[in-house]
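B., you asked whether I could sanity-check this one before it goes into the benchmark set. Here's the sequence:
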Amino acid sequence: MKAAANSELSFEEAMEQLEKIVERLESGDVPLETAIDLFQEGMKLSQLCGGKLEQVERKIELLIETEQGFQKKAFAPMNEEKGE
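And here's what the prediction gave me:
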């Protein structure tokens, strides 16, 4: 699979392809060369999914209830809020 084709996949499509690759690798019925190729393709899909999740995290806004009502706050993972 080409990198350009991978970048056009939705998160769900990439996860579906990744699941199929995992199933094939877990079956143990693939030659070594094919297993290596599948592993490399799986790693690319995994990175694509991770990147898409990071994009979504940046878009999430948390609503925080205060005395003045609800306020929007940009999403920050727990470890970033604590400076870790």
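One thing to flag: Strands lie at 61-66, 69-74. Otherwise nothing jumped out at me.
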